[in-house]
Amino acid sequence: MVSPLFFAHSHEWKILNNMENISTGSVLKIAIQKSGRLHDDSVKLLKDCGIDLKNGVNKLRTEADNFPMEIYFLRDDDIPQYVEDEVAHIGIVGENIVHEKNKQVAVVEQLGFGKCRLSVAVGRNEKYENVNFLQNKKIATTYPVLTRRFLEKNKVSAEIHEISGSVEIAPGIGLADAIVDLVSSGSTLFMNGLKEVETILDSQAILIKNKNLRSEQQQILDRFLFRVRAVRKAKNNKYILLNAPNGRLPEIIRLLPGMKSPTVLPLAEPGWSSVHSVLNEDDFWDIIARLKESGAQGILVVPIEKMII
Length: 309
Ligand code: ATP
Ligand code: MG
Fold this sequence. Notes:
Blueprint: H1 4-24, E1 28-33, H2 39-48, E2 61-63, E3 69-74, H3 79-84, E4 90-94, H4 95-101, E5 105-110, E6 116-123, E7 138-141, H5 144-153, E8 159-162, E9 178-183, H6 187-191, E10 194-203, E11 205-210, H7 215-235, E12 237-245, H8 249-255, E13 263-266, E14 272-280, H9 284-293, E15 297-303
Parallel strand pairs: 1-3, 1-4, 7-8, 7-9
Antiparallel strand pairs: 2-3, 4-11, 5-11, 6-9, 6-10, 12-14, 12-15, 13-14
Bound molecules: adenosine-5'-triphosphate (ATP) and magnesium ion.
């Protein structure tokens, strides 16, 4: 017969274990967009960070298999509020939403996707010279707060019509003289006979956090951030391999700073070396051209998966 003591102990152990979870609050709750433009890239970022999500048992919430993280799928507009209220500890959302909603959250990191701008657009045939064009006009937008702030800054008074979507058709149906909306390629504006005339805000997806995170959550966030930064760094850098005659190595090495300095290995063919290094995407094409001028041959460029410096 199993001793009652055993049950008592195992029960206590369970309670203790749960209490530990409660007292350390050892899960980081992240809010991401449920569906829409930021959803796929947000899930991909988690995946690239080695965080595997359990397949949607329920569409609102899931958890990670291998990281102390719970994932909440929400409308992007609601994410700043949930993070302020600590329903979620952190969230991924567009800067545009964070500024519009004006909630008490801290910005942790820009994430490099979901890039767009909040712009003013008017009919293609309008003679727009400067913001004074907007004086006493009607402006349709889903961003009344940012629009008002922009108008005040420019000392223009105009009537703001807050609408909930399809802003770009407002001028065409006579609802407004101008719009303030998000633009990325500009093709939606073009198709609706509009032109972009002012940029109010440049935006991208950012990681936000509750301002009063407990140290347990902050620690998990730090572990997560370490991975996010390694993934982002890797995306911005490429691994490059090339062959070069030994006589030209000094000038080639000068072009390739690498993480510390390039690796140089002798080729089987005498007088030649293979040079390996890491290149930043920003000056990538420029350096490739100069490497060729310096006698580099057989240049290979490969993606880097993670980069820890
Ligand atoms: P939700 O149902 O979550 O409220 P939504 O329709 O408000 O979604 P989306 O259109 O999915 O929002 O856009 C989400 C975010 O993607 C925007 O807030 C913005 O940060 C970013 N974004 C990037 N490019 C664009 C674009 N061209 N138009 C609109 N949003 C863009
Ligand atoms: Mg929304």
